[in-house]
Design goal:
With 72 residues, this protein is mostly helical. 64% of the residues lie in helices and 0% in strands. The chain is globular, with a radius of gyration of 11 Å.
Length: 72
Amino acid sequence: MHIGNFIEIKAKEKGRSAEWLANKIHCKRRNVYDIYKRTTMDTAQLMIISKALETNLFEFFCEMYEGKKVKS
């Protein structure tokens, strides 16, 4: 799994659509689909998305660093 997949899973768990997330982070819906495909992410953008989803998305990298299986 990569960060984009992780974001998509967390958004769906919260019942949030790509359109909703696009509105929250002030971009177009197609950009959110591009985010979902990313294997890497700028930390500033990850913070914005984390705040929008009210979820600590940095846990993805912490768990990878610690060698844990990333939870979906």
